[in-house]
Amino acid sequence: MSDAYKGYREPAVSILKENNVRVWSDVVMETKRGTFTGIILPRSETADAYHIVLKLKNGYNVGIAIENIINIKEISYKEAHYKIPEKDFPYDPQKPRVKLLGTGGTIASRLDYRTGAVIPAFSPGELYGSVPELADICNLETEKLYAVFSENMGPEQWTRTAEAIGEEIHKGVQGIVIGHGTDVMHHTSAILSFMVQDPPIPIVMVGSQRSSDRPSSDAALNLIHAVKTAAESDIAEVLVSMFGPTSDQYGLLHRGTRVRKMHSSYRSTFRTIGDIPLAMVDREKITVLRSDYKKRRDDRNVIINTNFEQKVSIVYYYPNMQPDIIYSLIDNGYRGIVIAGTGLGHVNKPLYPALKRAQNEGIAVYMTVQTLWGYVQMYVYETGREMMELGVIPAANMLPEVAYVKLSWALGQTKDLDKVKDIMLKPVAGEITDREPYNGYLIYQGGIPEVEAFLRTIKR
Amino acid sequence: MSNYFKAFEEMTEQDYAGLGLRAGLEIHQQLDTALKLFCRCPAGRYSEDYDAEILRHMRPTLSELGEYDGTALMEYKTKKEIIYQIKHESVCTYEMDDTPPFKINQQALDIALEIAILLNYKLVSEIHIARKQYLDGSIPTGFQRTTIVGIDGWIPFQKRKIGLIQLGLEEDACREVSDIGHQRVYLTDRLGMPLIEIVTRPDMHTPQEVAAVANILRWSVRSTGKVRRGIGAARQDVNVSITGGTRVEIKGVHRIPLIPLLIYNEASRQFSLLKIRDELHKRGINSKTMHARVKEVTHLLGDTLWDPIRRALKRNEKIYCVNLKGFRGILNYPTQTGKVFSGEISERVRVIACLTRLPNILTSESGEETIDSYIWGKIAKVVHADMNDAQILVWGNEKDVKTAFEEIIIRAREATEGIPGETRQALADGTNGFERILPGPDRMYPDTDLPPLDISEERIKQLENLVPKSLWEREKSYRKMGIPKHLIIPIASSPRANLFEELCARTTVPPVRIARLLFEKTVHWQRRGLSVERLSDEKWQLIFDCIEKQPVLLEKVEDIIEQFLKKEDAHLEMLLKKYIPARIDKVQIRKVIESLIKNEIPVLSSVEKMQRYIMGKTMQNCRGHISGEIIHELVNEILNSVGVENE
To answer: Phi, psi at residue A453, to the nearest 5°?
Structure first.
């Protein structure tokens, strides 16, 4: 019964009942402001309970205040069935096998114009209908692992994904693509780089910044790039494949441990921090930008290690931070703390006693930099040296989020803090780099004549 | 075959009724707001130069039926690269579809509601923003955010009512810079500006009525004073169909006076296309029996001197011939004034196959000197053509020319069915050209980035007070007041109309004089380069207050205003005060006149001259504080009384 009034609550639902109409009824509605004709649509759960939504014949939706309704008459009724007719994804024995794992987010969709619903397209047949170019690249299989919003992603999902990857590698696929929300894509790409070591094939994470129902969406191109990389590239690492510039020109392949989402909404939001990306990818080719990556192999070996200690926290230092924050972490049983410190990796003196206590109670404390770019260097200033005496370990140029997942992973494997330190400071998948080239940090300011002149000449 | 459509000037209402003409109007009008509709960029900053360029492509979205609809398929075929030219001061990351929308501009919403109330629409209680998809690239997101604030409005027209289907509030699109081959370039300055869209029912009976209704709507929205003026601020589209025809939308009508000719030409085009269909059926050709053969003929044209093909060969392009069985004479059939059916084919080739260099086809029925008839003969052999057939040559690069000859066959098949549903472009000569396949049912779906917005009763009540009197009410009352005909519409459609009516009501100055001052003299002054904007409502109130106190001011008021306008720092109040009378009254003037006559009067040859002399001197003394008539009266009286007779 509740579905007949989907989303409508009191007092609106009573109006519907009194007039013997329900969601999907085609009605004539007499109101104090005139007569409206259309189909009653479901009400969004976050909208108020004082309006009824009609889809008019001209395609527009309008809301009518229930206080203005005189009566409603049903002319006909046709329930909505979101059934998508499917085509089969073409099979070509010459083409490589690629597996697409779904974790959430919509990489492709269809629209039901009658109701206005956006329906996710995920099965190979649905994807083929939406992005037919995929069939030119590979034979695609899809599997939905789970469907969570980005913010609800966590160790449970990461573990399941890592295990699924392991299974697929053993089954012999030539590449894996993981559809994922963009907000925590870099967290997932980092933890998967640790949980899935030395894969023989590319594992490419992909998402879309703009919803895939839009003609302008980056979804299709990102998917094409990711599938192409999984099928053809010889980079056997965990990668993130998203737009390079905001123009539809090329995507970038970023190493999973050095990539970060740098803007809340821009298509070009993902960037490699402190280094250059691994490659550029477009519809025709993959152009590697460097040669120091793990190459594709024919064997099916991979190391899956899904250990994870939940009691680890990131602490983002700010001036006037009080030690009680750290105490409360300690009192709540946290085993590891990653500090995102200011400058070269600093916090204020009032925190020292808390750090001391952490050291005494065997809690692993690592330092990273809030500035994201640059190395932690705690020898330069007295503060740094003092902190190292208190057991804070500099994490070189590991990004704060990467250090967080790695520490969780390390502490999941051993309680011995020396062993943890070995794990932390020995790069597994490029999360710490030996050197930062000049072109690892390129943030140019707008408005400067030479920069504006540059922008005018390139279409990006 | 004869085309016995009457000439434009000779068509009557009965003729159009006989054709079953249905014509509707769509008006887009920019609103005069400070900012754009869904972001905080300034509205109305136009410029041809730009700071950066962004490249995008548009992908169609599948419908629930698992198909791409006609427009989507068409745009997909053209595979255009879209370049957006952006200027930092007029667009932000919202326009470039890199940031979600901000809350809707409330000023724009208020203006839209006001206009909806003015035009008798039924208002909705809650605004739902929708996404309307466009694949031509004119909006970077690929859809326009749009909403409606009211339905079922109307305006009176010649004893009937013209229905207005809906009033929409939506964002404006980019301005096209160029569309050549596979690249389309847009300027983004206009993108995102608030627009209202008024759609009429096809209740107009003749093309001239459509133009008249367009004017009424234009003047009505102007009377609010809250819409933008200037080039491109208001655009109109017309929808046309005739009995047996198809509803065709003609977009981008440049000027309202061009509307009648455009509608006539479209009706004529549809009439001709139906005749073509009937003729083809008579010949036994329908969509099933139609036969076309395509062959490459590049090798046959090596020696041709005809420029377009010669150049194509130089570019290493391929040339194909399409033979349409039984189509003889069809390609030359007149469709619009100065156009024939083959033009429809050329347009399809240009838009869909992106062969934009014209001419892009050559037909066997072309009248001009083109290819040798000997070569035509060879071509005809290759495609197995006979006397009853028609041939079309098309040339281009390998990919595009294939799309081209496929489109030629598609259009030819459509000719056997009737009139294809299309969106067409209005051209400056009153004819129209193909723009795109008419989209399927509105490609609209809810915009989930923004929540629905409640329109409260209080808000509507407040706005109702701001809504001006309707155009037609004002026209009626001004006619009664005796306002000169040529001033009625300018006043009725002016935001100053309220001021005008108020002044008529509270002063004794004849309305005609007020009308001429406010609406005629100001135009005159403006033409002379004076800054009439300085004459605000308050200034006018002041002027008429002073005239009420001192009616004689009316004679001087134009001079005073001119003085005020000529000097930047002039004070209107002070200038007016100079004319407000001191205590001079008739008694004093008598004394002045009498003393003049006694003491100063020279010997003058006639009474008239004496009168004038005395008047002049008196006026000087009184500094014009009293009306000349009164002084004239007094002078006469006194002269008479001292025995000087008038002649």
So the answer is: -65, -40
pLDDT tens for residues A381-422?
Answer: 888 899 999 999 999 999 999 999 999 999 999 999 999 999
Q: Which letter, b or e, does each residue of B160-181 get, where b requires 16 or more Cβ atoms within 10 Å of its Cβ?
A: eebbbbbbbbbbbbbbeeebeb
Q: Could you tell me if A186 lies within 8 Å of chain B, comparing CB atoms?
A: no
Cβ-defined contact of B143 to A36 (cutoff 8 Å): no
CB contact A60 to B (< 8 Å): yes
Residue entry with tokens 């002039």: B570
Choose from A60, A262, A458 for mutation: most chain B CBs within 10 A: A60
Has residue A252 got a pLDDT over 50? yes
From B375's Cα to the closest Cα of chain A, the distance in A is 42
Asked if residues A83 and A160 have their Cβ atoms less than 8 Å apart, the reply is no
Q: Which of B60, B61, B66 has its CB closest to that of A84?
A: B66
With contact defined as beta carbons under 8 Å apart, do B292 and B320 qualify? Answer: no
Q: Where are the domains of chain B?
A: 22-241, 286-416, 469-578, 586-641
**What's the average model confidence in pLDDT over A352-359?**
96
Are A63 and B452 within 8 A, CB to CB? yes
Contact flag A60-B147 (C-beta cutoff 8 Å): yes
Signed CA dihedral, B344, B346, B348, B350: sign only: negative
Which of B64-68, B114-118, B136-140, B408-412 comes out lowest in average pLDDT? B64-68
* Residue B44: CB atoms within 10 Å: 17
At residue B624, the pLDDT reads: 53
Contact B127 A62 (CB under 8 A): yes
Which residue's structure tokens are 């919803």? A211
pLDDT, one tens digit per residue, over B258-311 is: 999 999 999 999 999 999 999 999 999 999 999 999 999 999 998 888 999 999
The pTM of this model reads: 0.85
Chain B contact probe: residue of A32, A33, A242 with most B CBs at under 10 A: A33
Per-residue pLDDT band at B3 (split at 50, 70, 90): very low
* Catalytic center residues of A: 106, 182-183, 261
CATH class of the region B286-416: alpha beta
188-207 in chain A: CB under 8 A from chain B: none
Distance from CA of B52 to the nearest CA of A (A): 5
First and final C-alpha spacing in chain B = 84
**DSSP class of B423:** E
- pLDDT over threshold 90, residue B577: no
Closest-approach residue (CA) in chain A for B445 = A116
Q: Who's near A81: CB < 8 A, 6+ residues apart?
A: none
CA B585 to chain CA mean position, Å = 57
Please say if the pLDDT value at position A325 is more than 80. Answer: yes
Type of residue found at A147: A
Collect all residues of chain A within an 8 Å Cβ-Cβ radius of residue B122: 33-36
- % of chain A at pLDDT higher than 90: 80
pLDDT in tens, B182-218: 899 999 999 999 999 999 999 999 999 999 999 999 9
What would the DSSP string read from start to end of B448-507?
TTS--EE--HHHHHHHHHHPPPPHHHHHHHHHHHT--HHHHHHHHTSTTHHHHHHHHHH-
Classified as helix, coil or strand, B67 is coil
How confident is the model over A170-192, as a mean pLDDT? 96
What is the least distance, in Å, from the CA of A248 to any CA of chain B? 5
Closest chain A C-alpha to B152 CA, distance in angstroms? 9
Q: Is B647's pLDDT higher than 50?
A: no
**Under an 8 A CB cutoff, do B126 and A216 touch?**
no
Distances (CA, A) of A349 to A324, A354, A367, A382, A383: 13, 10, 15, 11, 8
In percent, the amount of chain B with pLDDT more than 90 equals: 64
